[in-house]
Amino acid sequence: MSSVSAVSEHGAAPVLSLAGISKSFPGVRALHDVGLELYPGQVTALVGENGAGKSTIVKILTGIYQPDAGTIRVDGQETRFPSAAAASLAGVTAIHQETVLFDELTVAENIYLGHAPRTRWGLIDWRAMREGAKTLLERIGSDLDPEVRLRDLGIASKHLVAIARALSIDARVVIMDEPTAALSHKEIHELYALIERLKAEGKAILFISHKFDEIFRIADRWTVFRDGQLVGAGLMRDVREAQLVRMMVGRQVDQIFPQREPTAGPPVLTVAGYNHPTEFADISFTLHRGEILGFYGLVGAGRSEVMQALFGLTKPSKGACRIGDRVVVIRSTAEAIQNGIVYVPEDRGRQGAVKGLPIFQNITLPSLAKTSRRGFLRLAEEFKLARAYTERLDLRATSLDQDVGLLSGGNQQKVVIAKWLATRPRVIILDEPTKGIDIGSKAAVHDFMAELAAEGLAVIMVSSEIP
Amino acid sequence: MTQLAKSREALLALAIVVMTGLIALRFPDFVTPSNLVGTFNDTSPLIILALGEMVVILTKSIDLSVAANLALCGMVAAMMNEAGLPLPLIILAAIMLGAVVGAINGLLVWKLDIPSIVVTLGTMTITRGVIFLISGGAWINDHQMSELFKGFPRMSLIGLPVMSWIAIAVVVLLGVIVGRTALGRACFAVGGNPHAAVYTGIDVGRTQFLAFTLSGALAGLTGYLWIARYAVAYVDIANGFELDVVAACVIGGISIAGGIGSVSGAVLGALFFGIIKNALPVIGISPFWQMAISGTAILIAVAVNAREGRRAGRVILRTAETRS
Description:
The complex is a heterodimer.
Chain A: E1 16-25, E2 28-38, E3 43-47, H1 54-61, E4 69-74, E5 77-79, H2 84-89, E6 92-95, H3 107-112, H4 126-139, H5 155-168, E7 173-177, H6 185-200, E8 204-208, H7 212-218, E9 221-226, E10 229-235, H8 241-249, E11 267-275, E12 283-288, E13 292-296, H9 303-310, E14 318-323, E15 326-328, H10 333-338, E16 341-344, H11 348-351, H12 359-364, H13 368-371, H14 379-392, H15 409-421, E17 427-431, H16 439-454, E18 458-463
Parallel strand pairs in A: 3-8, 3-9, 6-7, 7-8, 13-18, 16-17, 17-18
Antiparallel strand pairs in A: 1-2, 1-4, 4-5, 9-10, 11-12, 11-14, 14-15
Chain B: H1 2-26, H2 33-58, H3 66-82, H4 87-111, H5 116-135, H6 147-151, E1 156-157, E2 160-161, H7 162-180, H8 182-192, H9 194-199, H10 204-230, H11 241-251, H12 263-283, H13 287-322
Antiparallel strand pairs in B: 1-2
Helix pairs in contact in B: 1-12, 2-7, 2-8, 2-10, 2-11, 2-12, 3-4, 3-5, 3-10, 4-5, 4-10, 7-8, 8-10, 11-12, 11-13, 12-13
């Protein structure tokens, strides 16, 4: 393992350096004695599994958390970030996965919120603000209208606004936390170009991503965290992907895709000539029992929309759908579930678990007809059903009576999957099941899909990741 | 959630006991069996309405038209009584009319997708207007009501007036609906996470529609009880009472954001509010101060609830941290 050097090979000193940082929460040690150095004009990639402490370090860097121990130095001067405002004043800014900006304000207002140019009378100088915003956006090669309200923009444009905001406060350190997660292929390339520009302007960039192709493409340095500890750091050109994976997982990951013998049975679902006025055209496919069918496409290609039509969330304008040899018309999600089609949505936080309801009630929500008698719910039956499926998925929870909101993201996902399996479906659609999860968990998801197919389920997997 | 809810309701029950005890120290008469029965009976309309409101709030909505709906159904009941119709029919009609008003609220929320606060503010005013139209602004007084019509809610049955028994029956009924039917479960799901509810095959709008209809039916029932009990019907009866109902729910720990609440919470919230309202005149506090004190009690109850909620928030944060 290479050690973190105080001075980079060019002799440039780090803009920001953390040393000996520890942070604990009741019952959890999130970070233990970690260090991180960010150099001007360079991209440092921070890699680690879910739970490695990446988000915690970002929150310490942006002044949201205070470290229990350790030092923060800016230009070699020891300092503290007692608040988000202090971090921002020191020139540290973060661009998050889902950028935190204000939908109802204009682009210019978002860029200058909190430090708007003032007129002589202390009022906001709107003209200076508009012009300043325009100049900043031009600097990053964007022709966005500063007058547009943010809610009318896509995520990629919102990232541009966030970056323009970073420039407006003269940020020296830009943290990008999975900035490409919601971007399309083209937008990702635009982001790369933008990062090159920021590098040329001498910004120090901390880039957090699960995607190795991105990291190898744009990063100059790497830092690996595992279980809240620093595993190593060094220059990108001295390292290979397998080494990084080994460091972040702590073991060898041989293969992400299990070998399986395809045993496709009779057709379960046949879709013929599905059309939608705006989202997709002429979609036809046949899905067999025991088969895993992959739908690959970039964000915005219409994959999710086709699946939503199958699941009764939207209506196709034309086309037919057959289950087994019965022609069915699916008008609502309830009908889709009745016909044995279930959908595990991409946005599991928003569309998956019902926080506030206990685990077992989340699982039985679509199966209540089965567990109740004469219209009355039977809690004992619900518990039995929930227990059967949570045991199968190895859910980690203190009790099935626990609020789903108290579970970790991975376990919430298990609850959502258990919910669908409990309906005994024939077709299960998994929308981006591996999005945003680390390489170790990815293998588990793939194993699980193979297992479902082996039991005779037909699986549709929607993904924008090419192995 | 359950443990949290339990502790919250236990806390509220404790607050009610302590408060009653403190009042009893100075005014022992307040805790005589007959006065406690009277207090419970006086609180019965609030309990019934709060239960209906709770179901609506669970689905992330609010029903501000309950008091106006009550007044309309009460007026219609009084007019039917004047026309000499039999009491069972009158009560049934009041419930049905209330359900229809509730269903209109529900349909507007469901089909036109208008926020419930706007819908029910509108129907609240319309309903008061309708009462004025059908009554011509006139009052229906004590002497215009039949003895049975007035006497039924006050009839004593094993030591409790019929009105109290009806409230108890509604508590049991709502306990079954909320805790033991798919509709009750759907209300929690719809309020807890509407997006997830859709993906689970639950019709969000339909669930809200049914919640409003239930709330309306209970308002209709309360309309008859109220008019008969106070032996007077006029346009402005129970004016502003919808705020007491919402307050009782909030005190009872029903989250205005939807998805969290319980029947026992709503009942305890209503009792807490009812006892304060009944005790203040006994203690001899001027009516001018009574409102201020009621309001303060609401704020304290909500502040305590919010602290409970924050504790839950901290736990969530901690698990979030474990995930990093």
